[in-house]
Write a structure and sequence with these properties.
The protein is an alpha+beta fold. It has a domain of 112 residues: PH-domain like. The protein is 37% helix and 30% strand. It contains three helices and ten strands, in the order βββααββββββαβ. The strands form two sheets. It has a six-stranded antiparallel β-sheet with strand order 1-2-3-4-5-6. It has a four-stranded mixed β-sheet with strand order 9-8-7-10, covered by helices on one side. Helix 1 packs antiparallel against helix 2. The two termini are 24 Å apart.
Length: 214
C-alpha cells in the first residue's frame, strides 16, 4: 500500500500498537496510550525490582554467614543490584503516575494548543515527565522515523516506525510507534502516515519522513 492510499482516520481506530485514536475531527485530534500498556510496563518494573532485591538480600546474607570467603567481592554486587532495584522502583512509580494521568498526543485548533509528553533524554529525566501543553507556534514538524536492519546480518526480523512531534527548541513529543515484518519495513511507516499527515495538516507544519538503516 502506498502512502497515498491510506485509509481514512476514524475515532477508536487502532494504530496497530499500544495507542488508540480517541477523537478526530477537523479541529481536534487526540491519540492516547492504551491502559494495558501501562500494566505491562509496571509488571516488568515490579519483577525487576523484586528480583534485584532478592539477589541483594541473598548476597548480604551470604557475606554475614561467611558462606563464601569473598565478602569483599560481594559488596560491589550488592551495590549494583540495589541500584537496579532503585531504578526499578522509580520506574514502577513512574508507571503508576502515568497510568493515572494517561499519556496522549492531542491537537486542538480552537485553543491553538498541542498536548504531549516530552521524549526523555537520559536515564533520570523520564521519571518526573508528564503531559504538558504547548502553543502550536512552538511546533516545528511531525516526524515519522523508521528503524530497520539492512543486509543479511539482521538483528531483528521486525522494523519499527515511531511518530514524534518536534518542537522548535529541539525536544520531541512522544507519539505512537508500530512494528512491521522486516521484509516489509515500509509498512510500519505506512501504518502511521495517515495520522502524521492529519497532525501536520491541522498544526500547519511540515511532515518529515526519516528512514534509518542499522
Amino acid at each position: 500500500m502506498d502512502a497515498t492510499e491510506e485509509s481514512p482516520l476514524t475515532p477508536q481506530h487502532s494504530l496497530w500498537g499500544e495507542w488508540l485514536l480517541d477523537e478526530y475531527s477537523s479541529t481536534h485530534l487526540r491519540v492516547s496510550k492504551r491502559p494495558q500498556a501501562f500494566w505491562k510496563e509496571m509488571g516488568r518494573q515490579a519483577l525487576a525490582t523484586v528480583m534485584a532485591l532478592a539477589i541483594t538480600f541473598a548476597l548480604v546474607m551470604s557475606v554475614y554467614a561467611n558462606i563464601w570467603d569473598t565478602g569483599w567481592l560481594s559488596w560491589p554486587l550488592v551495590a549494583l543490584f540495589l541500584a537496579v532495584a532503585v531504578f526499578g522502583l522509580l520506574g514502577l512509580v513512574r508507571g503508576i503516575r502515568q497510568a493515572l494521568q494517561g499519556i496522549r498526543l492531542e491537537v486542538d485548533l480552537a485553543q491553538k494548543t498541542l498536548w504531549g509528553l516530552v521524549v526523555p533524554q537520559g536515564i533520570l529525566k523520564g521519571f518526573m515527565s508528564k503531559v504538558q501543553a504547548y502553543d502550536l507556534q512552538e511546533v516545528h514538524a511531525v516526524v515519522l522515523h523508521t528503524h530497520h536492519h539492512a543486509g543479511a546480518e539482521r538483528k531483528s526480523n521486525r522494523a519499527m516506525c515511531e511518530l514524534v512531534v518536534q518542537l522548535k527548541n529541539g525536544q520531541c513529543l512522544q507519539g505512537p510507534d508500530v512494528w512491521a515484518p522486516e521484509p516489509m519495513h515500509s509498512e510500519a511507516q505506512q501504518r502511521l502516515f495517515p495520522l502524521a499527515k492529519a497532525i501536520a495538516h491541522m498544526a500547519n507544519i511540515p511532515l518529515e519522513l526519516k528512514d534509518e538503516e542499522t
